[in-house]
Amino acid sequence: MTGTISDLLNDLLDQAQLSPILEPVWKNSSRLTASVKFNVLVQLSQWTPISFSHHRPTGHVSADKVPTIHAVVTQRKSQLAALNDHIDLLNHALEKLQDIQAKLKEKRVIVQESLAFHEALASPASCLLPSELLGEIFLRCLPQTNYVRPSPDECPMVLTRVCRHWRAVALSTPRLWASLNISLLRADTTSGGEYKRWLEKARSVPLSIRVVHDIDLSDRKKPISLQWLRPFLRQCSDLWWHGPPIQGLLDNVQSLSCFHITFHKTNFLVSIPSPAPQLRSAVLQSLTDDLHSLRSIDLPWHQLLDLKIQFALVSSATFLQVIGLCTQVQRVSVSSVCADASPQTDLQTSPLLGTVNHSIHRLEVNVIRAGLGSLFEALTLPALEELVIRFCSPDGYPWPHKQFSAFVTRSKCSLKWLTIHRNKGAGSHLTEYLKMLPGLKIVV
């Protein structure tokens, strides 16, 4: 047994690329085996000489015994030297064993890390996460758009092809399927079933849908897809309709909070006949039409908090009418206002009426003609904090300094930001505006 332990000790030292710890002691005993050497060490460690700590030399010894005593002293010195050598040897061995132990512990840490890594690699990492957390991660992998275009190589569809667990989590996360960009032409030909199955996965979650009406209406037939699409439109909280209007499109839109409609080369007609209690944001867009009046637009103006109107031309009178109707709106953007006081234009046929709005915090106006001064004369905005004015022509029209100063004084607003684009005349009055409104930040 002892030989085996000794051999193992020497083997360990050899494996650690160290010299065997027993070799220095037996320089002159090459014939001894490791087993014999180890037995000698064990016997030496077990041998305990008689203690003389309580004995003191008394009297004198006879002369004939002195040589014997000297022999004992010599023997004891030799024994003490041997014991010191063995203690040093064992101390050295312990140091080497501690070094070996430290290296083995380092290797054990590396092996444990490798084991954990390969165990995790052998099974899907998702299995280590709760399904709810994995679903939240999936949501953050969706394309950075409000309306997702279906693609087998993008989220969320690609998630269903990784493994069974991912597919189950993806299909059980309704918000992954709550956004969709729909082409009515594709819906009526090849992709109707795909769109419908997509939206069905969203279950009862509020939807964000963009519908592109790209069907030729020359035959005056309604798209077939509207039959299955209408229930999903009623589930929308965010709807962008792009194309010609369809009668009854916005019936019973109880959940709608954000509505965006874009028309091109057609008469602009918007109507929400039934209550839309959640509607707070509206974008009305037709870059090819003029907005002469609000007769073709029926919206709950008083509910809106955000409003954006983009037309080729918007008459000053219509602009002021919108401002007067939107009693709770906080942010308004209008483009392009036709602020032309000339009687020759049919967009401005009567003097502008004074309009007061107590809720607007931010107003952005793109001006396409002269006459901005008349708008300032008609407006009073006590809550205004940010005003952005953009001119379509940088040198075509003067800046209405007097009317703007009167507007600020009359409104008694705490204007913090003033941005004026493409009008060189405003630059000469900036110092005066800073005196009127301490803390005002101006961008020209």
How confident overall, as mean pLDDT?
82
Topology pattern, helix = H, strand = E: HHHHHEHHEHEEEEEEHEEEHEEHEHE
Calculate the terminal CA-CA distance, rounded to whole Å. Answer: 95 Å
Overall strand count:
15
Task: Walk me through the structure.
- With 444 residues, the chain is an alpha/beta fold.
- It has helices at residues 2-15, 34-46, 66-122, 131-139, 164-171, 184-189, 192-201, 226-234, 316-325, 372-378, 401-411, 430-436; strands at residues 179-183, 207-212, 236-242, 258-262, 270-271, 281-291, 297-298, 306-315, 331-338, 355-356, 362-367, 379-380, 386-391, 417-421, 441-443.
- The strands form three sheets. An eleven-stranded parallel sheet has the order 1-2-3-4-6-8-9-11-13-14-15. Strands 5-7 form a two-stranded parallel ribbon.
- Strand 13, helix 11 and strand 14 form a beta-alpha-beta unit.
- Helix 10 (372-378) packs parallel to helix 11 (401-411).
- The longest helix is centred in the N-terminal third of the chain and has 57 residues, at 66-122.
Features:
444 residues, alpha/beta, 12 helices, elongated
Produce a short descriptive summary.
The protein is α/β, with parallel strands linked by helices and 444 residues long. The protein has 12 helices and 15 strands. β8, α9 and β9 form a beta-alpha-beta unit.
How do the helices and strands line up, and which of them pair or pack?
Layout: H1 2-15, H2 34-46, H3 66-122, H4 131-139, H5 164-171, E1 179-183, H6 184-189, H7 192-201, E2 207-212, H8 226-234, E3 236-242, E4 258-262, E5 270-271, E6 281-291, E7 297-298, E8 306-315, H9 316-325, E9 331-338, E10 355-356, E11 362-367, H10 372-378, E12 379-380, E13 386-391, H11 401-411, E14 417-421, H12 430-436, E15 441-443
Parallel strand pairs: 1-2, 2-3, 3-4, 4-6, 5-7, 6-8, 8-9, 9-11, 10-12, 11-13, 13-14, 14-15
Helix pairs in contact: 1-2, 10-11
